Amino acid sequence: MARHGLSDLMNKGDDVAAPIPFAFPGGEAQTLRAEIMAALARVVDGNTYILGPEVATFEKSLAGSLEVSDAIGVASGTDALVLALLALGVESGDEVITVSHTAGATVAAIRMIGAIPVLVDIQESTYCLDPDALKGALSSKSKAIVAVHLYGHPANVEAVRAAAPGIPVVEDCAQAQGALWNGRPVGGRGEVSCFSFYPTKNLGALGDGGAVASNDVGIATRVRQLRTYGWTMPQYAELNHGRCSRLDEMQAALLSVKLKMLPDYVARRRAVAARYRGGLSTLPLILPLEKPGASHAYHLYVLRSDRRDALEQYLSRRGIGVGRHYPLPVHHQPGLAAGARIPVPLTVTEKIGSEILSLPMFSTISDEQVDRVIAVVREFFA
Ligand SMILES: Cc1ncc(COP(=O)(O)O)c(C=O)c1O
Known about the structure:
The protein is of the alpha/beta class and 382 residues long. Helix content is 38%, strand content 14%. A seven-stranded mixed sheet has the order 1-9-8-5-4-2-3, with helices on both faces. The protein has a three-stranded antiparallel sheet with strand order 7-6-12, with no helix packed on it. The N and C termini lie far apart (48 Å). It binds pyridoxal-5'-phosphate.
């Protein structure tokens, strides 16, 4: 199957004054159109549309790429978290510790099974869970920790484990597919890890999709059973809280095509981040960093400025797509905060909320587009 060089991935012949989107989910699929159409035709002709050969093939390749024994395709990243927690035995009333500064889905998943989210602070350097804050959040009801590799920077899972010995760690890798920690892909250090194939993600589907990965055969087996009604054999629901949450054959077929390109996509995101750093490092901004041992996957490029609102408006007015990740932490959103426990101050979470701004980041952005973003940011500070 033909592989495409990075130059094929970039938008060609852009009018540099044209608007620059914040994300461009169609770009990668359009570049791979012929291969994707062939894969989809194979599904149409195959006459099996749920849990067939395409899902099995994709699961095997995904597990290989993550260096884990098992990967299980499910309907979304949120469902991956729900099924991972259920497979760990988390039940209604148990506490699950995570961060308030994350996509709402992380906490929504905890609440969906009736568990109590316990929200802790993040590190100011990486925006990931602060292991020191974790110590003050443990209780006799703590049943799991969800460590989010936010924006694509790996959370320090070893430090999390050391701060909370014996409590299983779920890695939320939704934003970090392709990130490395000490040379190994994220997703293999917790008991179980969760991925999202939402279209803008580093490995994006053309619709919803997600996966659970694990080196624990027991957990993997339970996730497989829970995704299909809790069946341990056809039409025999043995597990409590079974769901219907399956990756479909169409998404699996195209994800198999795109998975081969993931290293190139992530390399391109990293090159874009390096270009942003080169152009912005002399400005009064806090740029994302990489901790020693980490290889950031740059799902998002989030900088900080004490003039965030003005900068955001300046960029938007000049046609540059920007975002806030996230506009409000979880504990300020009533639909997520209800029933949550907040045992330690969320100092960093509160502080950075008014400073964060995400610049355009996608693998098919051209160098010219990146340079234009840099030029407009520089113009703002001039
Ligand atoms: C950190 C994080 N966790 C979980 C999810 C949920 O993934 P999905 O949208 O596929 O359900 C997302 C997606 O936005 C995410 O960014």
